[in-house]
């Protein structure tokens, strides 16, 4: 867009260009015409100019001015980019890991495995992959536990490497891949690398594998560790680097035959730790933790392994730690003690999406009243565009407060964070093989995680960490998080192990061997589904289930839908059950205290048959709006529906349909009723 008027009339345009553009693609400018007068600087009022403009559109002089404008803009953009690159180079040179590069490379030239224990802020996630690339270790793949981390690190390293994202450096996550035939460094999620191991057990594409944030110990992490230990003897040239700020180095080193450990210190910015509690007389310490565990059992959430031991958190205690009044009190202290002219944003760690949604409204009300804060959410299911808002710099005199799950605990660095507020809570999946119950339950974080959270405040300068629990409670925390493989259902993990050619899942090399009861339950589950035979070997059905990027129960449901001629309906339902619910919290009418009009608009979509059918109706209604050309986004807003979740559902549905096609599974026609009905929506 431009500042000048004139131009070719709309009816004479034949380039099929859009009539409107996103602001990021617009340039605002004014062109000074030397032929014009002071009152008419562009000379547009002269009759001969108007006539010429009508005949030829833009005059040559104006076209030259526009070309000059774009040259000037490109020159400005390049100078700005060069300044950013110079700053980036200076920042990289100051990172502690840079000083340890010679030792790191020497270890990898003399051995296959290296453990890098790098304190928060040392630069391991961005610099170690680049070091391997520049030192000639061939093609490098680096795993991250979350999509946001993989995407943001790829972009950051691309910038530092002076290359376009997707050229030498790229990323591959679910639904999104930016890479080329020349990509030599690829950031991926752990699930992507597991899928590659299924199709290429020797990982022949890669010369070096980096597993970042190993301390999180997801089931996929432990599965990768075991598979890579089996692979190393077959690939003597392969190099493996395990990285984290807080990993259990003794156990990992022993697991890989005494692999060396390289310690890298972090930046030494001081962090002031303050303990802020809502009840000064609240019990704390190990005795209180045991009392809390007994109270958790009394809450009736199941028994045994489901309780999570002494590290389960009472639901009432979790809500207390994440209360709006307590959080507003902390924000008030920041406002009172630190002048607004001093830059510094706040990062608040909560246990999950539900807590973020509950706290957003009171915090936004406070931000609107004070004019001192911008409130932003950050969680794994947030669209990429919304996630990137947390990296924006707020206006002078205003601070960001980011409400985040543990997605912000590792890898992702938000510049400008000076204050961390740690609730001490995290949600973990727990499973009891006796009652066959599983649940996502609030738990206390480990001490290692609490230290990781604290470190976010000292990445770029001195910071303050507010812990919303007593110091005695911090001292009683477990050292490390309990590995997921010891507390969650293992059927999907065992299915992948068997699909990778391991004859007996019980003999797989686990870093932390799971309880026999969990393994037995997993094998029994797969056998009941028809995925394994009586000897524990994969059946044809089991091999198909392993190929489907979905939970094994839902995979069996989808395959039954194909056999019964209801594939379209089941594609939608299966995808809907695999994503976070798009149904947001219903807002209240502040004047009446009653539900807002959105409740009535949503009511027609609610099914008495349960959530799966409600989601099916919701998806079909949304797709009907899209297909008719109407405003689907407005349709979602009127019903308090998150359209980004529906878009994710649509992508997942298409992925399932593509997988079925690759497996040459065709939907049968229904025995009665003609065409497959329901859940079509045009997504397959």
From TrEMBL:
Signal peptide: none
Keyword Nucleotide-binding: yes
Domain Helicase ATP-binding: 105-265
UniProt-recorded Gene Ontology molecular function terms: ATP binding; helicase activity; hydrolase activity; RNA binding
Gene3D superfamilies tied to this protein: 1.20.120.1080, P-loop containing nucleotide triphosphate hydrolases
Domain Helicase C-terminal stretches: 333-501
Pfam families: DEAD (PF00270), Helicase_C (PF00271), WHD_HA2 (PF04408)
KW Protein transport (keyword) present: no
Keywords annotated in UniProt: ATP-binding, Helicase, Hydrolase, Nucleotide-binding
UniProt protein name: ATP-dependent RNA helicase
Organism lineage string: Eukaryota, Haptista, Haptophyta, Prymnesiophyceae, Isochrysidales
């Amino acid at each position: 867009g431009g500042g000048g008027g004139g131009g070719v009339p709309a009816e004479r345009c034949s380039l099929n260009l859009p009539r409107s553009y996103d602001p990021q693609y617009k340039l605002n400018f004014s062109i000074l015409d030397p032929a014009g007068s002071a009152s008419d600087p562009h000379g547009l009022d002269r009759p001969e100019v108007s006539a010429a403009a009508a005949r030829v559109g833009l005059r040559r002089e104006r076209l030259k001015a526009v070309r000059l404008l774009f040259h000037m803009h490109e020159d400005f953009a390049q100078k700005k980019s060069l300044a950013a690159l110079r700053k980036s180079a200076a920042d990289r040179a100051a990172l502690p890991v840079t000083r340890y590069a010679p030792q790191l490379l020497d270890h990898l030239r003399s051995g296959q495995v290296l453990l890098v224990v790098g304190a928060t802020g040392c630069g391991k996630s961005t610099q170690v992959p680049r070091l391997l690339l520049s030192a000639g270790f061939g093609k490098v793949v680096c795993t991250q536990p979350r999509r946001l981390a993989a995407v943001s690190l790829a972009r950051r390293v691309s910038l530092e490497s002076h290359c376009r994202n997707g050229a030498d450096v790229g990323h591959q996550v679910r639904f999104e891949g930016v890479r080329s035939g020349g990509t030599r460094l690829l950031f991926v999620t752990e699930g992507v690398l597991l899928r590659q191991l299924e199709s290429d057990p020797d990982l022949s594409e890669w010369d070096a594998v980096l597993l970042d944030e190993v301390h999180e110990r997801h089931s996929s992490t432990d599965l990768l560790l075991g598979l890579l230990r089996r692979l190393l003897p077959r690939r003597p040239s392969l190099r493996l680097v395990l990285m984290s700020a807080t990993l259990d180095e003794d156990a990992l080193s022993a697991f890989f035959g005494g692999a060396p450990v390289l310690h890298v210190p972090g930046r030494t910015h001081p962090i002031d730790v303050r303990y802020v509690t809502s009840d000064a007389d609240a019990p704390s310490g190990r005795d209180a933790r045991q009392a809390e565990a007994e109270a958790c059992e009394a809450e009736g959430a199941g028994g045994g392994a489901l309780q999570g031991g002494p590290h389960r958190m009472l639901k009432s205690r979790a809500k207390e730690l994440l209360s709006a009044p307590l959080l507003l009190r902390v924000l008030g202290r920041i406002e009172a003690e630190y002048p607004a002219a001093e830059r510094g944003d706040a990062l608040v760690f909560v246990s999950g999406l539900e807590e973020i949604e509950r706290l957003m409204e009171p915090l936004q009300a406070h931000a609107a009243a004070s004019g001192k804060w911008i409130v932003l959410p950050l969680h794994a299911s947030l669209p990429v565009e919304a996630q990137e808002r947390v990296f924006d710099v707020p206006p002078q005199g205003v601070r960001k407060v980011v409400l985040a799950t543990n997605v912000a605990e590792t890898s992702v660095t938000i510049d400008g964070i000076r204050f961390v507020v740690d609730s001490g809570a995290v949600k973990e999946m727990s499973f009891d093989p006796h009652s066959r119950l599983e649940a996502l339950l609030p738990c206390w974080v480990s001490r290692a995680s609490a230290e990781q959270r604290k470190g976010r405040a000292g990445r770029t300068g001195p910071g303050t960490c507010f812990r919303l629990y007593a110091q005695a409670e911090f001292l009683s925390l477990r050292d490390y998080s309990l590995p997921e493989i010891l507390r969650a259902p293992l059927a999907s993990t065992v299915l992948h192990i068997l699909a990778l050619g391991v004859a007996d899942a019980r003999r797989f090399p686990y870093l932390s061997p799971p309880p026999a009861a969990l393994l037995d339950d997993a094998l029994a589950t797969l056998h009941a589904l028809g995925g394994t035979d009586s000897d524990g070997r994969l059946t044809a059905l089991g091999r198909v289930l392993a190929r489907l990027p979905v939970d094994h129960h839902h995979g069996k449901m989808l395959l039954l839908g194909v056999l019964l001629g209801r594939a379209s309906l089941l594609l939608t339902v299966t995808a809907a059950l695999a994503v976070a619910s798009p149904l947001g919290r219903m807002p209240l009418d502040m004047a009446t205290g009653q539900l807002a009009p959105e409740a009535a608009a949503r009511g027609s979509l609610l099914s008495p048959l349960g959530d799966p059918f409600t989601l099916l109706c919701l998806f079909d209604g949304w797709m009907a709006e899209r297909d008719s050309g109407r405003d689907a986004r407005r349709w979602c807003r009127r019903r308090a529906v998150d359209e980004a979740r529906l878009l994710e559902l649509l992508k997942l549905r298409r992925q399932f349909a593509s997988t079925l096609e690759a497996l040459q599974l065709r939907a049968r026609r229904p025995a009665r009723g003609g065409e497959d009905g329901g859940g079509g929506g045009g997504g397959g």
